[in-house]
Amino acid sequence: MGRAVTQPTPRQADLLPAARRTRNQYWLSSAGFVAPAVLLVAVVLYLPFIWTTWISFTEYNGLGDPAWVGLANYREMFADPEFLTSIRNTLFWVVGTIALPVGLGLLIATLSHGMPNATLFRLPFLIPYAVSGVAVGVIWSFVLQTNGALSQALEVLGLPGSELRWLLDDPLNTFVMIGAATWQGAGVNALLFGIGLQSIPKEPIEAARVDGASGFTLFRTMTWPMLAPLTTVVVGLAIVGSLKTFDVIWGMTKGGPGRVSETLALTMFKETFVNNAYGLGAAVALFLTVVTVLASVLYLRRQLADSRSI
């Protein structure tokens, strides 16, 4: 037997067009709210990106019309040994920024968690974050310059290292600049991890203590897994920030001596605004953008995949 087809009643038939009109009005209203934000993103982000991509395939000095050169800027970029040094230094910054500011921030937050007046303990580490990156570079360049404050202090104390040229020798200058960035950024990471520790439920921690877990074992088996979502955000921000590092380096060495301490961000700036090679600078900018996006996407996909498997 065939199934009987239920026809809408006259009342239901009258309501269908009204429901469609209501749904269409809802979508139109939603689009009206979203459109300004989409337009702003397109104007501020996408149009400059398209223009930069176009300029990267041209020879352009900021005056006149760009001349199409195809992949010449990219070939010149990868053939330049100084560019390869910039890539190496950028990798140093990525690894150093994850290991030091993030690691030190986690250590400060863990040690101060549960202490009375823990905020006062973290405050001295947080104050440098209020200082601009260029100011941090100026402060630390005074400390680390040849025969500067650090060298003189080591010499007076009879400790080794007073003869080192902190900002002149490669890759030592990159490492000490990562240390300066750590001084600035560890406090805010400690603040974020402190907030994460406060949000962890106490019951599982107390149950683990009853079972005999304590110290590093308690942290590794209970606290650290519960901090994983926050750690993903903090490390992701650190990766993106390290790839774009500019201000601290500019304030301390300006990429020198020569170009031995440049990163990709500094190379992009110098090629564009110092050498007036806008096409080559745009090629470096596009390469840096692709690297930043790929690093962020791969890291987040890895972290999200790990979180689903738990």
From TrEMBL:
UniProt subcellular location: Cell membrane
Cellular component terms per the entry's GO annotation: plasma membrane
Membrane topology (UniProt): Multi-pass membrane protein
Annotated InterPro entries: ABC_transporter_permease, MetI-like, MetI-like_sf
Transmembrane segments: 26-51, 91-111, 123-143, 175-197, 218-240, 277-300
Pfam family, one: BPD_transp_1
This protein's record includes keyword Zinc-finger: no
CDD domains according to UniProt: TM_PBP2
Keyword annotations from UniProtKB, A to Z: Cell membrane, Membrane, Sugar transport, Transmembrane, Transmembrane helix, Transport
Major localization class: membrane
Entry similarity comment: Belongs to the binding-protein-dependent transport system permease family.
Name of the protein in question: Multiple sugar transport system permease protein
Organism the protein comes from: Ruania alba
